[in-house]
Design brief:
The protein is α/β, with parallel strands linked by helices. Helices cover 22% and strands 16% of the residues. The chain folds into two domains: 293 residues, FAD/NAD(P)-binding domain (3-Layer(bba) Sandwich), CATH 3.50.50.60; 255 residues, Glucose Oxidase, domain 3 (2-Layer Sandwich). It is built from twelve helices and 25 strands.
Length: 597
């Protein structure tokens, strides 16, 4: 096998071909025969993996290998321009996953985009930088036993990793709570007139107070990665001897394609898995860590039994966008025309400004469903499952364009459209990830089990969100930006419920039908390798070490003990920053890596 010109595209530069015969690999034999890295082998270059690679490689005497199945994002324009992220969907930069049929959503299979490039899903999203509710993280510590991961524990890292650029037009930001010297550059995106003078005042009319600090971001990572390869991770392999109480993760197995040769890399210290909520449990299962039943069904030897792997998955579900017809020129739908968008692309490339800096969700309201009562509703009020008495369970995103089918479909008849999207932040429905086969080239089975909670509370919360949105669009301040449409009371019509003859009297049944036929993910699944003190109910301990296995950690959204009430990128980054400190502090107290022999 000849070497290619780009060393990052040739596994022989950092990996060793797998032997087809011979005894099982042990730590000692791996040290003698395999390409080794002094610190860690990190699998997955998403938010967590990039942070860890950057921070751990600050020690110039160590080497870190960061493995990513996708490619570099440096020249992927769509990952840099905020408004263009939907153009990456269904491309080589997207895992292009789909769920199984969801009985709670009209038996539909939902599209789940996941990033397959440097930055992971942070290179494939709306760049929202959100600390979320402090009580979410306090709940991790107080309810789920994850001491050391409360908001006070994470807040220093949220500030440390951020470089916030103030905006003179919005001086109300309290910079005391924002970082100024980190490597994640944050600031304000484009704010459309219909958001500033329509949506935000309408939210205030609906009783939602205005807050100045709306976090948006264009995330960038320092170029501190010592090695990178575009290939597929197959599994982690372990050293297992009769004298050992626990298996030791000693490396990873890789393959460039389904029929290609396999390669192995040795980690002298640790393997750290950062594959994300979908791919992390898949790799754990393929490596022999899962329930015995799941592994046996696919003929995978059990390395460590853990029934929590792939379970406890919770996602943020959107009912779908309420589409309102706006007056011509008041939204950004004109940018769907490539010719009209070209001058603004030049503006962005030269100055980093203009409407292409819009991240679609230019403003958001965070509310509690239990604060609202609607006489027209017959379903009954939802129960409170927030993380504290003031915590939100609904987010209402205002988008100054038609956000249909994940932003892939343009507005009808060239219309200007405002999209109002309610999102359930604290679902009680819990799903799972399982294997389709024992091949890493086959996508895992994704079953979120949307709207499956026994008390139907998730549906009640979403109904509340829809009704609050209907109240918002009736605000006089907002109506000034809208145009009338022909009355249509069919829930399947394009403009419904905006076109309804009696918006305030729409039935629960019609809103439920509307939601089930059109709901989609907001791309925030968590919890499939969750953190906790007990190996009976969690996958990793409070240091993100896999229960029952040595030298193996997981850090990404899969370790969240519970779903948070906001966007996860900033918390993932803060957790990775914190873990990098924990690892380096542990290294200072421990013996050299070869002592594990």
């Amino acid at each position: 096998m000849g070497r290619r010109r780009n060393p990052l595209h040739n596994p022989l530069h950092y990996a060793t071909p797998q032997l087809r015969t011979g005894p099982p690999v042990t730590y000692a034999s791996a040290l003698r025969t395999l390409q080794s890295y002094d610190y860690e082998v990190i699998v997955g270059a998403g938010a967590a993996g990039c942070v860890l690679a950057s921070k751990l490689s600050e020690d110039k005497n160590t080497s870190v290998l960061l493995l990513e199945a996708g490619g570099d994002n440096t020249k992927v324009l769509e990952s840099k321009v905020p408004l263009m992220f939907p153009k990456l969907f269904h491309t080589e930069h997207d895992w292009d996953y789909y769920t199984v049929e969801q009985p709670g959503l009209a038996a539909r299979r939902l599209y789940w985009p996941r990033g397959r490039l440097i930055g992971g899903s942070t290179s494939l999203n709306a760049m929202m930088y959100h600390h979320c509710s402090p009580s979410d993280f306090d709940e991790w510590a107080s309810v789920h036993g994850c001491e050391g991961w409360s908001f006070n524990d994470l807040a220093p890292y949220l500030r440390r990793m951020e470089m916030f650029t103030p905006d003179s037009a919005r001086p109300a930001i309290d910079t005391e709570h924002r970082g100024s010297s980190g490597c994640w550059q944050t600031g304000y995106s484009w704010l459309s007139e219909i958001i500033e003078d329509g949506f935000i005042p309408a939210c205030q009319d609906a009783g939602i107070p205005r807050r100045a600090d709306v976090n948006t971001t264009n995330v960038s990572y320092k170029d501190r990665i010592l090695a990178l390869r575009v290939m597929l991770m197959l599994r982690v392999f372990f050293s297992i001897a009769s004298v050992q109480k626990e298996p030791i993760a000693i490396g990873v197995e890789l393959q460039t394609n389904r029929e290609g040769p396999r390669f192995q890399v040795h980690a002298r210290r640790e393997v750290i898995l950062c594959g994300g909520t979908v791919n992390t449990p898949q790799i754990l299962m393929l490596s022999g860590i899962a329930s015995a039943e799941e592994l046996k069904a696919h003929g995978i030897p059990v390395i460590q039994k853990n029934d929590a792997v792939g379970k406890n998955m919770k996602d943020h579900l959107c009912t779908t966008a309420i589409l309102c017809k706006a007056k011509s020129g008041k939204t950004l739908d004109y940018l769907s025309n490539n010719i009209r968008a070209l001058p603004y692309l030049v503006q962005w490339m030269l100055f980093g400004r203009g409407p292409l800096t819009s991240n679609i969700g230019e403003a958001a309201a965070f509310i509690r469903s239990s604060d609202y009562r609607f006489p027209e509703s017959t379903t009954g009020p939802p129960n409170d499952h927030t993380s504290c008495p003031t915590g939100p369970d609904l987010e209402l995103i205002g988008a100054p364009l038609a956000f249909i089918h994940h932003g892939e479909e343009a507005a009808i008849d060239g219309s200007s459209v405002f999209s109002l999207i309610p999102i359930h932040l604290r679902p009680q429905s819990s799903g799972l990830i399982t294997l389709q086969s024992k091949s890493s080239f086959d996508a895992p089975i994704i079953n979120p089990k949307y709207l499956s909670d026994e008390e139907d509370n998730d549906l009640k919360v979403l109904l509340t969100g829809l009704r609050v949105c209907l109240r918002i669009i009736r605000s006089p301040a907002f109506r000034e930006f809208f145009e009338p449409v022909a009355t249509n009371d069919d829930p399947s019509s394009y403009w419904w419920p905006y076109s309804s003859s009696h918006i305030e009297k729409i039935s629960d049944d019609d809103l439920i039908r509307f939601s089930k036929e059109k709901a989609f993910t907001l791309y925030h699944p968590v919890g499939t390798a969750r953190m906790g003190p007990s190996r009976d109910t969690s996958v990793v301990d409070l240091e993100c070490k896999v229960h029952g296995v040595r030298s193996f950690r997981v850090i990404d959204a899969s370790v969240f003990p519970e779903q948070i009430s906001g966007h996860p990128t900033a918390p993932i980054g803060a957790m990775a920053y914190k873990l990098s400190d924990m690892i380096r502090d542990e290294r200072k107290r421990s013996a050299p890596p070869t002592a594990n022999l």
